[in-house]
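Slide 14.
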Amino acid sequence: MAAIAARALERRYKSGLQAVAGIDLTVEPGEVYGFLGPNGAGKTTTVRMLVTLLRPTGGEATVAGYDVATQPGEVRKRIGVALQEAALDPLMTGVELMELQATLHGIPKADVVARSSDLIERVGLVEARDRRVGTYSGGMKRRLDLAMALIHRPEVLFLDEPTTGLDPVSRLTLWEEVRRLRDEGTTVFLTTQYLEEADVLADRVGIISGGRIVVEGTPAALKAQVGRPHLDITLTPDADVDRARGVVSPHGELQPPTEDVHLRLTVEHGSASIAPVVRALDEAGLTVAGMQLVEPTLDDVFVQQTGSHLEGAGAPAA
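Slide 15: predicted structure.
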């Protein structure tokens, strides 16, 4: 049974706007699914329907085996949701909010303290557990919201742009937790504006544009559809470029030169192709001034499918 399944899922508003125009998707148990799309593409509307905050106007969807339209209560018991804007009482402490959330989910009193403490430790908030949430930084609030979403051990976790605006350290902490959840068998549905994040964390990626999923697959497969990696090779000014072309041509496909001492070689095996090329040039007595492996990115995929860059495509790496 799929953890998340949608067939012809639609959402049309009374104004006539069709925000989601027939989505089909399947997310397997224990999978991290990255959901990407520009603003206004229908990404948030899709998530709101899957977490039962918005009723579909067409099609159907199930989460953890239950229909989001006819069995919303059963769905909510089995999902955790961490939205971009966490609604946290600033006057309560971190541990108070955790224990309140546990109580609301009906967790036995004997387990509340232990489970709250364990999750607070997992997200790195032990030293701040007794501080009022109003004193927390944005990253600390996001981590607390994640811990609260996990308090009832959900089968499926929805993360809506969980690292937007966070510093690199907080982002890495959340990445580590997502990896740990996947290893523990939790299904994670991740929306993000950071392509690097989807590339690093997601087992599969779906790109939505105009209310429809326009492409879906593993990050590696999607990037391979755009093009193969290539080596940008810079030779020394006195190098015999024609001879260098002959030396490297057995290792890939030479592209038209951009400058006299530059070679561009399309290669099949990415970083594994670097050593043979360097060795061949060295054995030929040709000196390399510089070499860079350039690989297709998810941004290239995104541009090809939607015609624009994703807002967070140029975000610094964590």
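Speaker note: The longest strand covers residues 18-27.
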